[in-house]
Amino acid sequence: MTTISLKLPAQLLARLEQESRARRTTKSSLVRDCLEKQLSALQAPADLPELPAGESAYDQALPILKKIWANHRSLPKDLSTHPKHMEGFGE
Predict the structure, then answer these.
(1) How far apart are CA 54 and CA 6, in angstroms?
(2) DSSP letter (8 states) at residue 88
(3) CA–CA distance, 25 with 30 (Å, rounded to integer)
(4) CB 30 within 8 A of CB 19
(5) How far apart are CA 87 and CA 85, in angstroms?
């Protein structure tokens, strides 16, 4: 099995822990069961168009983005880590 991680609000985590104790099972097992039931009950909305087979929009845009990045080497690679661009964020 593959491991994933997720963030839960404290109230939901408390409910998960309470239910897993009541069922005498692990939280992981309970989450798997709940996901399985929820996902099997879901149906794709009928009004959504079928996606064409092939590359994603990101994959299609990547060659263009690479050209832009190559021509503008002075651009920061990641603005979220540059202190100048983060000034005042979250205030």
Answers:
(1) 29
(2) T
(3) 7
(4) yes
(5) 6
The count of other CB atoms within 10 Å of the CB of residue 31 is 15
Identify residue 39 by its one-letter amino acid code: L
What does the block give as tokens for 11?
């109230």
Q: Which two tokens stand for residue 21?
A: 């104790």
Q: Angle at which helices 27-41 and 10-23 pack, to 10 degrees?
A: 100
DSSP per residue over 53-82, as a string?
SS--HHHHHHHHHHHHHHH-TTS-S-GGG-
pLDDT in tens, 14-45: 999 999 999 999 999 999 999 999 988 887 77
Round to whole Å and give the CA distance between 9 and 27.
15
- R_g of the chain computed on alpha carbons: 22
